[in-house]
Amino acid sequence: MARNPYRIDGPTLVSFSGGRTSGYMLRHILDAHGGRLPDDVHVVFFNTGREFEQTLRFVHECGSRWNVPITWLEFDPAEPFNTAIVGYNSASRNGEPFAKVIRVRGFLPNPTMRLCTHYLKVKRGIAFMRDIRSYGEWVNVVGLRHDEPRRVARQKAMNEAGKERFETVLPLNETKVSRRDVSAFWKRQPFDLGLPDNEGKTPLGNCDLCFMKGAATIQGIMRLFPERVGWWMEMERAAPALGTLKKPEMALFRADRPSYREMFNFVRRQRDFEGGIADDCLPCDCHD
Fold first, then answer.
1. What is the dihedral of CA 208, 211, 212, 218, to 10 degrees?
2. Strand pairing class (166-169; 70-75)
3. What residues form DSSP beta bridges with 75?
4. In whole angstroms, what is the distance from residue 82 CA to residue 96 CA?
5. Contact, 19 vs 288, CB < 8 A?
6. In this predicted structure, what is the pLDDT of residue 275?
7. Running DSSP on this structure, what letter comes out for residue 79?
8. Which of 12, 75, 127, 140 lies in the 20 to 30 Å Cα band around 168?
9. End-to-end alpha-carbon separation of the chain, Å?
10. pLDDT digit string (tens) for 132-155?
């Protein structure tokens, strides 16, 4: 009998981003285990504090409807192992974990140094499994689809390097799942994420105004949700006071385009920043 890629043995961390793709993966993992996960399989949501409320509700609803425990983690240097265990009601909602990373490291993340992904997600998963749960080795399950070949190839290369105490498996890639499969699945369910599905993409997913999103996408979000802009502008405004910036451009999330304040001013004047979608980066490790 062929092995079911969704049936995972041994200590396992299932990374649930709070998006449709990872929700699809979680449902199939649950089904492969008869609806109940083994005690050493842990589903974890890494909260940055910059997600839309719909994402937080979706994570909570998946846990409640499917009767699966989901551990919510945040970066907090005041807690043991720099890791706070929170929940739907106590989760940060104004970027507090993200801001703490910036203060601790002394500069803003950028496309080549993604402190946010590393400290808010990767290191929190390691702290949870190694330090809090005391596993020596484990498996990471990540929701990269078959139609994300560059990200899949990068993850496989990291596995081959063997520098971590965990191996990452990609069941959605193994089963050749695409965006269309994920969209079709959620159309059949009695609940959904509640954020727009644009041909299988969720522009409002993950961090609201993530610097890895293209300028056109960011400006569209600014128009619809101007109240979400202030945090990003404040982080850039306050960056010089960190006192550790070696270059002026380190006070920006991206040095290859205007600041968040400048982009917001463009939006308020009903002008688009030229460059638009072309400056979209390779998607960050914060999968859907």
1. 60
2. unpaired
3. 83
4. 13
5. yes
6. 46
7. S
8. 75
9. 31
10. 999 999 999 999 999 999 999 999
pLDDT in tens, 252-265: 999 999 999 999 99
Q: Is 94 helix (H, G, I), strand (E, B) or coil?
A: coil
What is d(CA 75, CA 127) in angstroms, rounded to the nearest whole number?
10
Q: What is the pLDDT of residues 202-251, one digit of tens each?
A: 999 999 999 999 999 999 999 999 999 999 999 999 999 887 777 777 88
Could you tell me the pLDDT band of residue 276, with boundaries at 50, 70 and 90?
A: very low
DSSP string, 129-192: IIIIS--SSEEEE----TT-HHHHHHHHHHHHHT-SSEEEE-HHHHTT--HHHHHHHHHTSS--
Amino acid, single-letter form, for residue 276: G
Give yes or no for a contact between 150 and 173, defined as CB atoms under 8 angstroms apart.
no
pLDDT digits (tens, 9 = 90+) for 150-192: 999 999 999 999 888 899 999 999 999 999 999 999 999 999 9
Residue 138, strand partner residues: 166
Say if residue 150 is exposed, middle or buried (CB neighbours under 10 Å; 0-12, 13-18, 19+). Answer: exposed
Hey, which residues does 13 pair with through a beta bridge? 42, 140
pLDDT level of residue 277 (50, 70, 90 thresholds): very low
C-alpha 264/C-alpha 69 separation (Å) is 39
Backbone angles phi, psi at 241, to 5 degrees: -70, -10
